Amino acid sequence: MPTLVGVADSGPPFWRVVSQITREAIDQLPADQPIVIVAHSNAGLFVPVVVTSAPRPVAGCIFVDAALPSLSGPTPVATPELLEFLRPKAVDGRLPQWTAWWDDEDVAPMFPDAEVRRAVSAEQPRLPLSYYEELVPVPPGWDSRPCGYLLFGPPYDAMAREAAQRGWVVEENAGQHLHQLVDPDTVTRTIVAMSASWRSSARDPDGG
What CATH code is assigned to 14-77+135-202? Predict the structure, then answer.
């Protein structure tokens, strides 16, 4: 899993930094290992540029409680409503850590315990407001491979419905937005099961 903690340190366009980091990470994997892109939350918007910049074919993509890229044309990283919410929080152009955007009564239940929360909080970057003002390109053909959606719960249920309308497989592990921290085994099993046939096809594309 590539680390994107320093994604904003090089300056815009940030989507290009994301594609570069993931491209380098994929390049380090064994040549016979099928590649499945798994993106959580806001990272879903970057999947098209990750797929099209990958140094080898991508077998499929799974969006985990994630935002969806536009069907065509560039995707805004944030809606106008979210930008209006974020702008007053920026100090010298930088936002506080993501978990500090919300009331603690909403944030605390997403973590299994205080220790995990401290560990995650220690790695959270303070992203620049300009990160959320960007448009991410959506290269044509990025979704010409299998895609799926793993839902944890609201408000991403609307995204799961859209994924189903796109013809993607949709599964659910009921929980909150950071459910992968609460029940990593179940989430991992679901992702592996969703992508099993994709990975098999990638290993043996001729079915022989």
Answer: 3.40.50.1820
pLDDT tens figures, 25-44:
999 999 888 999 999 999 99
Cα-based distances in Å from 142 to 21, 35, 68: 18, 14, 13
Residue 20 tokens read as 């570069």
Percent of the chain scored above 90 by pLDDT? Answer: 83
pTM of the entire predicted model? 0.92
Length of the chain: 208
Query: Domain residues of the chain, as ranges?
Result: 14-77+135-202, 84-133
Burial class (CB in 10 A: 0-12, 13-18, 19+), 123: exposed
Q: What pLDDT does residue 208 have?
A: 42
Report the pLDDT value the prediction gives residue 12, as an integer from 0 to 100: 86
